[in-house]
Amino acid sequence: MGHLTILAISVGLAMDAFSVAVATSVNLTRLTGRHIFRFAFHFGLFQAGMPVLGWLAGRTVVHWVAAWDHWLAFGLLSLVGGKAIYDGLRDIPLDGNQPADPTRGWSLVMLSVATSIDAFAVGLSLAWLGTSIWSTVVVIGLVTAAMTTAGMYLGRMLGARFGRRMSIVGGLVLVGIGGKILFDHLA
Known about the structure:
187 residues, mainly alpha, 7 helices, globular
């Protein structure tokens, strides 16, 4: 597989992570290096790790995973998106309590898994083609981390300009991405 093909696959896989980074970073009161590092690191790691799992699984579990992977992605993205919509609609109390940080804890894990499930299928394909997985997953991880970082900066600029309305839009985008994944697999 050529370098340009690997780069195209990496960018294609990273688009969900980019969109999720934009949608979730609008909620952050202040974007810090820690937020960016956590998102970029985890998204890149999961996006690189899933093809390895798919590659190792080969043909043995493809039919089992294909039956429910799209439902898992839809559920996780809808859950996190619904929370973002809820946070955007509610008033922030005067005591300063902010919505939970989406770059930490279970939200981060759910988003990382949801955006990397399609990479599992790529790993299966790479196994069937007899492609070397290791250099490919390094490129996938680095491209995803870079696009996640860019998405977070873009999301923060949109959040600063449009305020809490962007949290609602971001939540709708997450639910929409989940719906698109579900529709693509069911259609």
